[in-house]
Amino acid sequence: NAGVTQTPKFRVLKTGQSMTLLCAQDMNHEYMYWYRQDPGMGLRLIHYSVGEGTTAKGEVPDGYNVSRLKKQNFLLGLESAAPSQTSVYFCASSYKTSGNTGELFFGEGSRLTVL
Amino acid sequence: GENVEQHPSTLSVQEGDSAVIKCTYSDSASNYFPWYKQELGKGPQLIIDIRSNVGEKKDQRIAVTLNKTAKHFSLHITETQPEDSAVYFCAAQPRTILTGGGNKLTFGTGTQLKVEL
To answer: Are residues B99 and A92, on separate chains, in Cβ contact within 8 Å?
Structure first.
């Protein structure tokens, strides 16, 4: 049981380049999320999805786009990377529960450096 | 929106001692407070959570307390062991009337716990 898998695990980009991070989960979860983790700032929600074909903005959505064409996959795109987007990105998923208080299952992270 | 503050940012204890991490939240409508542990090179993992209708919850060496009036909650680890060394995050989630809106947690900034031999 793989859980939540993120690819790639490491990437170096030049300013202005584009890239896509892929998240895949095999737990049949309805909800999926993308967070970024920066030193001293904890985890901040970028975008999330409550079901296939739906996406919504989180706390820090600017400069990112997402898509959820299949229930098990959630893609995070950077159209024109900036040094401020250097971070560790975490994907997470969770069941749909009453009160929306279910456990988040995280991937192992993708470290992105923008030069 | 919700704002969660977490203290201390680093904590060093001797093996066998207790460790306490404290968090405060701003939104009185928040009703769910999980704690996540992140080991080096891994993603965060839920270790314990508490809902606003409960004041304390224990799970072996880990306990969480919640004071709704003061809007703060704490993680207590007793008899610390080297494997407890990690980064710990508290989080809060506002009450959601409708199911289906996602678990939009607001996380604290993390506490690096080091358990020394």
So the answer is: no
Write out chain A residues lying below 8 Å of B4, CB-based: 42
How far does the CA of residue A80 sit from the closest CA of chain B (Å)? 26
Q: How many residues does chain A have?
A: 115
DSSP string for residues in chain B: ---EEEE-SEEEEETTS-EEEEEEES-TTEEEEEEEEE-TTS--EEEEEEETT-SEEEETTEEEEEETTTTEEEEEE-S--GGG-EEEEEEEEE--SSTTS----EE---EEEEEE-
- On the question of pLDDT at B99 being above 60, the answer is no
Q: Which residue of A has its CA nearest to B103?
A: A100
Percent of chain A with pLDDT over 90: 86
